[in-house]
């Protein structure tokens, strides 16, 4: 895989995103947020590549998948005004359809295109199927780690520096109630990433995002999350209830044990 191939896909991506000019301030902000997220995920791939055992050519291929992994978010946001995935409005389906319709992967071999599509398909799955192809696995894992690290970056920054309600789409339009879902507590005690269907309030959302650490694979990923103090930053915006303090403590210990 040559750098020029990545460069031409990046040029398409930039012009595609520029086509989503929007007058609504919050939509404009979220389009930029997703654009910048995509590029940061591309950069994180390079940081994690050594541990994932990817060679130079593999890294470029993984970066193509990273650049395109959320390409469906732009249409989802501009057309439907949401970041919530449903059966019909799903950013993965929308993204793969966009890639296919625009023939974005025409410079890749059939095998490489398939790999990029599979990475996009699996990047957001709660649990990966055990049958996943061994050659595909490092590409999927590196994308999942890079994506989660940057989600933690975005949300910790947002919760720390914004008034609640500033970006309703980023808050998944959830209500700011103090109750914590019991299923969510159980998932965290079991060291499992919380299923979005168990997220009922904004506090649940924050805790579920903290629980992304249970899905990380690479030592370097834990190191980045720990050094950037993402968990602490989110915890500081949560109500200091015993249950919340207990969950934070469990996640902190888990993170420290992976370093
Ligand atoms: Fe993403």
UniProtKB/TrEMBL annotation:
<dbReference type="InterPro" id="IPR006674">
    <property type="entry name" value="HD_domain"/>
</dbReference>
<dbReference type="Pfam" id="PF01966">
    <property type="entry name" value="HD"/>
</dbReference>
<feature type="domain" description="HD">
    <location>
        <begin position="34"/>
        <end position="152"/>
    </location>
</feature>
<protein>
    <recommendedName>
        <fullName>HD domain-containing protein</fullName>
    </recommendedName>
</protein>
<dbReference type="InterPro" id="IPR003607">
    <property type="entry name" value="HD/PDEase_dom"/>
</dbReference>
